[in-house]
Amino acid sequence: MAKATLAEDTAQSIIQYILDNHLKPGDKLPTEPVFMEKLGVGRGTLREGIKLLAARNILDIRQGAGSYVSHQRGIPDDPLGLTFIEEDSKLIVDMLDVRLLFEPHVARLAAARAGEDEKAEIMAQAEEVERCIEAGESYVAADARFHRLIAEASGNKVFGNLTYILNTSIAQNIAITKDAQRDSNTIRYHRKIAQAIMDKQPDDAASYMNMHLQLLREFVREKMS
């Protein structure tokens, strides 16, 4: 096995710093001078290490603002290899089938385990999706975050990452199912899911998530026919 370069060792040290300091997505890393002193490396080596982590979606480099822990959590841009699947509208149904296998259970766990801050954030995000829809704005990112917050509130870190990966399908889901009735049902079921989690009603949360995704799946199938 080839010996790691100094930049690779530095990248690993940065990862360890993130873990040791419990940094979360969106948190800012120390400035270059501070980090250079902490890690005992030069500016060039530090920057190379940061670039390696940015390429792995572990860090976001913001010009003039510094480096931040990425919301992508180190997950590749296309972990399912969808780029190499021929364009096929059935793929959207396939993705929804996968989501139906576990998202209702995720919602059940979130209702049982979510803390008060997590509940409030989920409810606020449901309201943000509603605001976007009523304002005629794109709600792709808001919708994805709603589902991701529920997964994170489940207490299962693997579910959180799986939901992030499957959120790559949400943009397609929304695009193909864009109509007033679909948007109205999104508002309705997001409210119900969020309220069930707020009220610690696991069965209701699972049931409403299942209804939400089943309804979306039916819309997609009708659009395809």
What does this structure look like?
The chain is mainly alpha-helical and 225 residues long. It folds into 2 domains: 6-69, Orthogonal Bundle (Arc Repressor Mutant, subunit A); 82-224, GntR ligand-binding domain-like (Four Helix Bundle (Hemerythrin (Met), subunit A), Up-down Bundle), CATH 1.20.120.530. It contains 10 helices and 2 strands; from the N terminus they run H-H-H-E-E-H-H-H-H-H-H-H. The protein has a two-stranded antiparallel sheet. The radius of gyration is 20 Å and the shape is elongated. The model has no long low-confidence stretch (mean pLDDT 86).
What is the secondary structure topology, with strand pairs?
Elements: H1 6-20, H2 32-39, H3 43-55, E1 59-62, E2 66-69, H4 90-113, H5 116-134, H6 140-153, H7 157-166, H8 170-176, H9 180-198, H10 202-224
Antiparallel strand pairs: 1-2
